[in-house]
């Protein structure tokens, strides 16, 4: 075995001190670079303004651009979808959230919730009717599961669907639904005499409305709304035939949570890099603040947590690509990576001082967004109990 003097090797990149890039294939780097290039050109110059204004002005145009890039439902096969690997999808989520969590939410809800529900549980006719147009960004979807009084316990939903001749009639309310205000279709989950079933509900259906939820201080670049269903009538062909019970919506949530495992790292990376650059440029007491031990400790701790989260994401991505990823393992990734990403953003804010609360820098925006990411797709408490049940064999949810 040959021996190489470690000191003769090139110095590590300060932006990638553990050389995590070596874990990726050329194809994975190419996907990442393509997403990054589009975001840098189209979104980065405007995202702080959109966040402050509380929305993306030309959301349909941007969605079509994301469709042309191939990221909508990119990990699904057929029907106009790109058919890329779970790891490639994860890298795209990381880059999207490095720009803004709201943008990653748009892509995640479209591909991992609405499209995935049709792709996995829909009829061939439903797949042919919707998936290619959704992959192109021509049709925007949302996912109606959460209710005002049914969040972490979705099985207690009160939305109901009843048969009326050859149709279904749906009544109920859904809350905190990303994409809802501008969605063309909603995947609505409702209780029936045959258990919980899913329905594809066009937004122009009589009795359907999606009022926007205002006054948010997080995910401001993402439109969030209610779904109001007052006697909404849909044909029998609107029901997802293969989904019965909570397995249907939970399988979709697990898919979306996987994207969050990667996405949260994007917000962390953006904040870490902003803090590292700032520490090199900001001078106090005659020296860059990066020359002081306490600042270096913060940067070192932030970098370590990012490295560990990235290693976990790659590992889960490889398992998913091999067909070996369990929902409990997705919970481990979501619990750890969002929690540590939020701490990285908060610590980065302290390095930037007062500048850390300005939208001139991305840090406070990422921190505010991650407060929502920490809660949606399963709270810290719920994912903690999933892991706790795995470790002990005891279910502690009730």
UniProtKB/TrEMBL annotation:
Which keywords fit this entry according to its UniProt record? FAD, Flavoprotein, Oxidoreductase, Transit peptide
Taking the record's annotation, the residue ranges forming a coiled coil are none
The annotated pathway is: Amino-acid metabolism; lysine degradation; Amino-acid metabolism; tryptophan metabolism
Enumerate the cofactors the protein uses.
FAD
Which domain of life does the protein's organism represent?
Answer: Bacteria
Cite a single Pfam family from the UniProt record.
Answer: Acyl-CoA_dh_M
Q: Where is the Acyl-CoA dehydrogenase/oxidase N-terminal domain?
A: 25-138
Name of the protein described by the UniProt record: glutaryl-CoA dehydrogenase (ETF)
Could you tell me which species this protein originates from? Microbacterium kribbense
Q: What is the lineage of its organism?
A: Bacteria, Bacillati, Actinomycetota, Actinomycetes, Micrococcales
